[in-house]
Amino acid sequence: MDRKSKALEILKSGTVIPATPLALDENRNFDEYSQRLLMKYYLNCGVGGIATAVHSTQFEIRDPKVNLFERILKLVSDEITDFENKIGRVIVKVAGVCGKAEQAVAEAELAKKYGYDAVLLSPGGLNNLTEDELIDRTKAVAKVMPVIGFYLQTAVGGRHFSYKYWQQICEIPNVVAIKAAPFNRYMSLDIARAAALSTRSNEITLYTGNDDNIVIDLLTTYSFEVDGKCYKKGFEGGLLGHWSVWTKRAVELFELCKKEKANKSISAETLSLANAVTDSNAVLFDGANDFAGCIPGLHYVLKKQGLMKSLNCINPDEVLSDGQAEEIERIYAMYPQLVDDDFVKENIENWKKEL
Questions:
Q1: How far apart are CA 68 and CA 45, in angstroms?
Q2: Cβ 211 vs Cβ 242: under 8 Å
Q3: Structure confidence at residue 46 as a pLDDT band (50, 70, 90)
Q4: What does DSSP assign to residue 186?
Q5: Could you tell me how far CA 295 lies from the centroid of its own chain?
Q6: How many CB atoms lie within 10 A of CB 248?
Q7: Fewest Cβ atoms nearer than 10 Å: which of 14, 57, 240, 263?
Q8: Residue 312 predicted with pLDDT over 80
Q9: Could you give the CA distance from residue 173 to residue 203 in angstroms, rounded to a whole number?
Q10: Could you give the C-alpha distances from 285 to 63, 104, 230, 250, 353, in angstroms and in order?
Q11: For 62-73, what is the mean pLDDT?
Q12: Number of other residues whose CB lies within 10 A of the CB of residue 177
């Protein structure tokens, strides 16, 4: 089996895929050193894949004045390839693509050029298009690369889709997964039902992007009875901005959920852990302020650990909300079982030597 086939098998089976942030220095210039250091961190945490050029990487990387989209794609792909060659294990490469069909296809072509295995197709900023137009866009991109469909929450530019929309998305050849990130139980259920009842159900893997409900998504099996037959589907992995911090613990959490789900024995401790993760996400993603500080919140943790030099985003107005830093310190103290600072401290100097 070639590398790409192995990567798609890993994606199909379900794995941990953090969505990478963008490292900038104190002057808002791209910090390549820190970006590579971040990659060392994620890869050594035991993740199964990495997603870049997505929301947490900041969509502004595509702005011609910023011009970081291609550079990020190449850097991340190169770091993954070097790691694969070192340890002999395939890591799934996922690239975010967005914009109208022409832009999305062009970005998918670029991702293909740099050796990515699949693209996460964002619907953000396209609320003026009809569902049929977005379905046609998905078909166009799927001719270039395997596609991960994306239900993006409305708070950060997404929209509400009909159940019929997801039915049609699931029937598109080369749609290999769907990331459910509406932060909404009703909408997430639509995806699960559409995928379960699709003629391509076995070819589509569901990934949770519901950072507010990570553990429960990973533990849950959805069942739908139609004409006396039961169809089942569940979330097999996560593609999450939340997992870009405390990633070592995220990998351990994923394995725990996978084990308990397989054994059909969900512990009370794991359900309590689910609430701890949700509380942490509310703070990191700044749910109290409609997610205004979601990216700086992630940067805060990574800077605290020495993996980034600044909290800066490309947009100077994108900063921590009032009181958010104090809340992050609260969850640090309240949920030490979620924190992997010790792992970073033990290994960061060795990662730096590799740069």
A1: 26
A2: yes
A3: very high
A4: H
A5: 13
A6: 20
A7: 263
A8: yes
A9: 9
A10: 24, 27, 37, 16, 32
A11: 97
A12: 26
The pLDDT of residue 153: 86
Whether the pLDDT of residue 148 is over 80: the answer is: yes
**What is the C-alpha radius of gyration for the chain, rounded to an integer number of angstroms?**
19
pLDDT at 16 (0 to 100): 98
Q: Do residues 191 and 164 touch, judged by C-beta distance below 8 A? A: no
88, 138, 147: which is closest to 116 by C-alpha?
147
What is the Cα–Cα distance from 75 to 60, expressed in whole angstroms? Answer: 17
144-160 residues labelled b (16+ CB within 10 A) or e (exposed): bbbbbbbbbbeebbbbe
- Rounded CA-CA distance 346/336 in Å is 17
The first and second tokens of residue 116, run together, are 């990515």
Alpha-helix residue ranges (DSSP H) falling in the chain: 3-13, 32-44, 69-87, 101-113, 131-142, 163-170, 185-197, 214-219, 247-263, 268-284, 294-304, 324-334, 341-353
Residues 233, 196 contacting (CB under 8 angstroms) = yes
pLDDT of residue 326: 98
Cα–Cα distance measured from residue 58 to residue 312, given in angstroms and rounded to the nearest whole number: 11
Kindly report the backbone phi and psi dihedral angles of residue 17, in degrees, each rounded to the nearest multiple of 5, phi listed first. Answer: -130, 100
Q: DSSP for 1-25? A: --HHHHHHHHHHH--EEEBP---B-
Residue-wise pLDDT for 110-144, tens only, equals: 999 999 999 999 998 899 999 999 999 999 999 99
Residue bearing tokens 């409609």: 290
Structure tokens at 310: 């600044």
Write down the pLDDT at residue 155: 75
Q: CA 288 to CA 1: how far, in whole Å? A: 47
For residue 83, name the pLDDT band (cuts at 50, 70, 90): very high
